[in-house]
Amino acid sequence: MIPYGRQDISETDIEAVVEVLRSDFITQGPVVPRFEQAVASLCGAKHAIAVSSATAALHIACLSLGVSNGDIVWTSPITFVASANCALYCGAQIDFIDIDSETSNISVSALEERLLAAERDGLLPKVVIPVHFAGLSCDMQSIAGLARRFNFKVIEDASHAIGGKYLEEPIGSGRFSDITVFSFHPVKVITTGEGGMLLTNSGQLEAKLRLIRSHGITRDEKLMTGKSEGPWYYQQIDLGFNYRMTDLQAALGLSQLERLDEFVRRRHEIATYYDNKLSELPLKILARNHDSHSALHLYVVRLQPQRVRRSHREIFESLRNSGIGVNLHYIPVYLQ
Question: What pTM did the predictor assign?
């Protein structure tokens, strides 16, 4: 059986989690900040905020950028529904930008065309969420240029892409976006069981993200509406959520992070093997741009209908019946 996805858990990973289980803190303790700092250092970002899932990360990313009723958010139609739902949670309208058929990432030319039309109609987006499909970075330099020109914010949905690079820099550096989001679901490159991370270079956004991650509660007297009543005192100053990561999850993530380069290197070895073995079949393999190093969360092939005599479903079911755990990525979000 070739599974669709399978986490790689080592004895070192297990020992790291057991160590936390035997400690004084299994939820909010010292390991979460250590994991945050490790990811920030890896990516070259100033701040990292760990959360319970990438869906939670996308939600509070939108909130921190002020997305609310009446706003417009654009993303890719070829993604998991969370990339769009995060805007709907905030009361915004969602719309989709067509993809580049070679990479399945957002098409910069399609984005620019839509922006010009939206500018004429007075309907520009507040936020654009490019999705690094299968681990390959979008053309972030061009998207950042459009963001400056048309005055929108950028959230990189890099749920697939930790360990990847763009223009020789780690994805997550924040050079071309306001916030980057990673996922640590078990099928991703590294896992914390469930979990996510936000990276930003803005101290103001970091403070906002940390606040709404944890019920909107602060113990910082400078942020309170009045004077603190004592060292026990806290105040809820915003409507937040319980989107926190636990020390148990962070311990697994820290341990997994040590093998990130190994995981990505192995994925590239397997992808090269697939490239060679599938080269004569009626398939189209997604392009891997020279300016990016994909994390290769997924290896995606597209059928060439003019050369295939069986239906998509027949091929899918035949592969599954042969023990090959294929899946479809993704049903376009606008069809949901």
Answer: 0.96
Backbone dihedral angles phi then psi of residue 203, each to the nearest 5 degrees: -65, -35
Over residues 193-239, the pLDDT tens digits come to 999 999 999 999 999 999 999 999 999 999 999 899 999 999 999 99
Phi/psi at 236 (nearest 5 deg)? -85, 115
Classify burial at 232, counting beta carbons within 10 Å of its beta carbon; exposed 0-12, middle 13-18, buried 19 or more.
exposed
Q: Which residue has the tokens 């040590």?
A: 258
Q: How far apart are CA 79 and CA 102, in angstroms?
A: 16
pLDDT in the model for residue 237: 94
| 154: nearest Cα among 62, 222, 227 | 62
Strands 127-129 and 153-157: parallel
Taking only Cα atoms into account, the Rg of the chain, rounded to an integer number of angstroms, comes to 21
Q: Name the token pair of 127.
A: 């936020």
The two tokens of residue 197 are: 């991370």
Length of the chain in terms of residues written:
336
Instruction: Give the amino acid at 326.
Output: V
Cα 297–Cα 303–Cα 304 angle in degrees, nearest 5: 140
Task: Return d(Cα 171, Cα 101) in angstroms, integer.
Answer: 22
| CB-based contact 105:99 (threshold 8 Å) | yes
The structure tokens listed for 278 are 């599938």
